[in-house]
Amino acid sequence: MHFQNLQIETDALPSAESVEYQKLAPAYLKVAIIGNLLLFVFLFGLNIVLLMAGDWSDAFFKLFAPLLLLLLLSISTALIQAGYKVKGFALREKDILFRTGLIFRRETIIPFNRVQHCEIKQGPIERYFGLKTLEIFTAGGQSSDLSIPGLLPEEAQRLKDFIIRNAAENDPI
Amino acid sequence: MTPSDVNPAAFYQPQRQSPVAILLILFRLLKALLRQAWPLAVVLFINPKSGFWAYIIYFAIVAAVGTAVLSILSYFKFFFYIRDEELVIEKGILQKTKLNIPFDRIQTINFQQNLIHQVFNVISLEVDTAGSSQKEFAISALEKDQAEFIRSYVMAQKKQQEPPSETTEAIEEEESSPPDQLIFKLTPQDLLKVGLGRNHLRTLGIIIATIFGLFQYLEEAMGQKRTIQLLGDYFGVQLSSIFSTILFLLPFFLLAAVLLTLVNTVLQYFDLRFFRTTQGFKTIAGLFTRREQSTSLQKIQWVRWSTNPLMRLFKQYRLQLAAASSAQVGRQQAMSVPGCYQAQIEAVRQSYFPAFAQQERESSGISKAIISRHLLYFGLPPFLAGPFITGGLGPFDLLWLGWIPLVYFLSHRFWKKWRFHISADGLQTDKGIFGSQATLLQWYKVQAIDIRQTPYQRRKQLATIHFFTAAGSVIIPYIPLADAQTLRNFVLYKVESDPRKWM
Lengths: 173, 503
Prior knowledge:
- The structure holds 2 protein chains of 2 kinds.
- By secondary structure, chain A is of the alpha+beta class.
- Chain A is built from 4 helices and 7 strands.
- In chain A, 45% of the residues lie in helices and 23% in strands.
- A 7-stranded antiparallel β-sheet of chain B has the order 6-5-4-10-9-8-7. In chain B, strands 13-12-11-17-16-15-14 form a 7-stranded antiparallel β-sheet.
């Protein structure tokens, strides 16, 4: 593509790829790892229940399943750790970017004038570490809604206020 | 009596529906009951045990009386009225429900008439709201003039609430209010073509699934062997397994599929009329149930027209107008107009996006790398698993050798036909393997943009870009990352600087 006919100099446009992504709070890594760990604790528990309910000599539940779970736990923990470096957000004058996905990379941009509303959420593990998640909703449906985890409470509030103020200012209505 | 003769004050008091509603509710309940019980009826019919019939008759009587009582009760417990700029419905026999819809949340009010409605000259009214209230707001039967009064009253009130800058314009428009302009009417010949050009394979799939379900019922009742034998005897052939039975019955199924889609098409699209209204577009269609759908031009997010080889023979297209879905995401509200010709497509394109035809466009294709990905994902696994499915190395298994060339051929066509055209204000994508599908999108309708990369795409410096709108997303796969980024910057600039409302 040459972008010659768009009546606008595309080189002169602000470029979204040159932004500096801001990393999530370091404690977010702990939140994610503990959340993942809890899931596996649940799965191990399920395995034990099945073992008790069924035949004790069942090789699958006794040996194979725990080993598989252990392997998956270590892989997913490693992936979370490596994925943390990729996750980040960037605030620009008129839009917000979020990047995620170690393997399947995804960069989402939402212009402020398309934001419907924002929400600040806090799960139990996040509460322990004093972190919050900012959710940004557009009319574009679930797959385009943003959820930015690992924010310090004042930062989440600051971001939310900034977005809401800009959404109202830019609103064409 | 015209809508203007209806006294608005009447609607401030709780109102009942037209008594025809009893009949409609009864009909709906019976239909639901029948849908649950039909396989039972079939089994009984094929394998009658004498003592059973008495129970069935008792059951039928109880069900009939029960549904009758239920529908009368729910009629008497259903009220609707207007209060404080809100439409209110109160209903429920045991559990009372009250639904309020403020006028400013109402998007459109749609009418629908099925056969019973037509006989008694009543209308069912459905309110389409913005926001995520999932509760359905509908009145099953209303006198025609009442329904029309409610619609015009609510819409007029709604207009008054809007900021003045826009109302002046809107009211001027309203005053001159030209009648709906007929763009297109589906003639019986066109209807037949539409029916023939539809996807018969899908109907075939549904038939086979239904037959399979029925087969399982029969099996439970009489055992597998007897069922197959019974079917074989019926057609006078020897059948050995379920698969050979299905294979044998395939031609019959195919014929049935074509007939069924024809019937379905006639039911759905009989006497389809497609109008240009002052606000946007309107369709009315259906044989027994006349369904009216309307959408305003502002709400339309993108326009799509598609065709398959059969439809191309008839020079027909199916037109889709995707409007901002009000209730919930996922249940898109696409207005679908089958049997359109080039002229109608042009007309709709002109109203949705007049500038596109004049603007200079830049056309590109997608990366050829997509072919090798398709081969890896769709070609290789079935090729490797194939011999295990058909079992062993018989002559049947040689068929799998053709799989990879087939996938390559299809994928190559897919790649070759994928084109997209960008202009200053929007985008058109063209794709399709045997058929073709074109989508037209204006940039200012975009809500959010995604750039995605799989590890393979990262290696090849490629990306897939998603443009999210309020009625689903438009995707361009496998373009150079740098192009995706430039396109994203450009579209963002457009979205952020365009003062127009996307809805």
